[in-house]
Fold Glycosyltransferase family 4 protein.
Amino acid sequence: MKKVLLISQNFYPEIGSAANRMKNIYELLKNKGYLVQVLTTEPSYPNKKTYEDASFWDDEDLNNDRHITRIPIRSRKYSGNSVSRLFYYLEMMWRMIFAILKDRQQYDVIFVSSPPIFVALAGLLAKWKFKNKLILDIRDLWPESLKGVGVFHHPFIMYIFSMIERILYRKADFIIINSLGFQDYIKKQLGPVSAEIVYLPNAARQCEMASQTVEKARNQVIYAGNLGRAQDVSLLKELAVKLSENDIGLTVIGYGVEKNQFYEFAQQNGLKNISFLSPTTRKKCLNLIGQSDVAIVTLKQKDVFHTVLPGKVIDYMTCKVPIVGSVSGFSKSLIEQEKVGLVSEGGSAADLFHNIIYLLKSKELRQEMSRNGEAYISKSFIWEKNIETLVDCIEK
């Protein structure tokens, strides 16, 4: 059976869709009989202190798995300083490269997940060293997304990032995307090359679908996930005020660089209807989402985010909760076509609030959207089915 080297910054027990994606790919490839070795970093997202809590280490098989190599990173990534982020990525890349150069095993396939592209560069080195196939997993259009959130501005740095991106696309044997919205952009960057673009979305496990049978709360709205520069936290602040004025509960299970300012805003404005919960395990998070009437997703109105399908959209459908969104492009089309939620046209707090009120007053519509979400997940977003797409790439 073939041996696979899986390289990723994020992995269990980290929270977030990236780590969950890599964990599922690892476990399901092992279940298919592949020999899989993981090269990742010590858990640090959103911060290292989170994982001092033993509840996050809830999988004994993975806790004691000798096929998982975790690299410590000394630099701090999650600060507002672009230079410190750059040093974090560079340190991660060099430590991964060093680990690859020391590795005396032989692999048939390299699977590397990006962003950041620095990790993908380590995967490219592994392709050259082991003289094998490279599967490049694109979870975000990096560095395009950096422009959208304003993390890096220097034209020369962005030029270098773009050059690296094109090299990676052209050297990969397969390019895996988690949103169909990425296809056109990548084809423009690629030009005439042989790499095959394959769609493998984030998804739910069958056991997660089966567990979603909880009773709904009354007039309870939830936001779960990253509160970063892409999520338009200023819009969420305005919405929180309107919800508070109308005695509608808002639960925020958030993390990210703008979480603290959102929390401070709620405290300063006396928004007592908001409950801020610390990041928790995926199982507990899904259970909390499932108890809510409506779930919120937001992204800034930037062209780069037109291609994105946030992981929380899939999680909300998994939990059978109707979605209210301020999103565009691929996400907007999916939510509207599958009739699993309402998307605001203007991207304003007033539009979001109007849609939330409309759903809270329409129990039958919420139930219909809940059924639609469950059906669509079962059809298109189940890991046990979708993993066959990756198996086909490995076996080609």
